[in-house]
Amino acid sequence: MISSVFPDWSPYPDLESAARAYLRDPEVALEVLNGVLSGSDVLGFTLERFVNEHNGVWQEVVICDGSRLLLWHGEDVGPNEGPHGSMISSLRVVPLSAVIEVGCRRRLNRNASGQLRVDSVDVYLLLSSLDEAANGHPLEEHKVSVRQDALRFGKTLEDGGAGQIARLEEFAQLVASLAGRPLL
User: Fold this and answer.
1) What would the pLDDT profile of 19-43 be if each residue is shown by its tens digit?
2) Dihedrals φ, ψ of 38, to 5°?
3) How far apart are CA 6 and CA 158, in angstroms?
4) Domain residues for 96?
5) Is residue 157 in a domain?
6) What pTM did the predictor assign?
7) Do 62 and 171 contact (CB within 8 A), yes or no?
């Protein structure tokens, strides 16, 4: 099993340094993202990585360049889905004009002296696009439910620490400040 303890990326202000410190496959992510950025400035970003029992490492980079969200996702292929060591690399580009709502939920914890601290943050970006999801058991008749598409991100003290919580909150504030504004 792959270790699920990863270095902290939050001290790194630039995407390349943070990705190289945190991701298992930074070269893959940076090549794909730099090809789409085409010289655009990275105004903010957030990173996620975890290990799941089915197929190994799952990695994500989300960038805001002022007019778009660029989402790179890298995921190991399961044992029966390809040769050992295979992964899927995917890119999604979402115009900021498609973000219709930004939500940020913080869980606060009060210590013995009464001081509050943030111990987790959950962020969602509701999109104008729709997402179709099949419900039910694979052998039963498929029922499709249509719902609003959303992007979700989360950090806790145990999964990322205070620095990554703060960086995710900054990212949410950036997107919230740009969503709904006319793009020039």
Assistant:
1) 999 999 999 999 999 999 999 999 9
2) 45, 45
3) 11
4) 15-178
5) yes
6) 0.86
7) yes
Compute CA distances 81 → 52, 77, 87, 117, 148, whole Å. 15, 6, 10, 43, 30
Count the helices and strands in the chain (H runs, E runs): 3, 7
Count how many domains the chain has.
1
Query: Quick count: other Cβ atoms within 10 Å of Cβ 39?
Result: 6
The helix (H) or strand (E) run that includes residue 18 is helix 15-22
CA distance 104 to 145: 25
Burial class (CB in 10 A: 0-12, 13-18, 19+), 77: middle
Question: Domain for residue 184, yes or no?
Answer: no
- Please state, in angstroms and rounded to a whole number, the distance separating the CA atoms of residues 153 and 124: 6
pLDDT tens digit sequence for 117-174: 999 999 999 999 887 766 666 666 667 778 889 999 999 999 999 999 999 999 999 9
> What secondary structure letter does DSSP report for 77?
P
DSSP 184: -
Element containing residue 103 per DSSP (H, E): strand 99-110
Is the Cβ–Cβ distance between 63 and 33 less than 8 Å?
yes
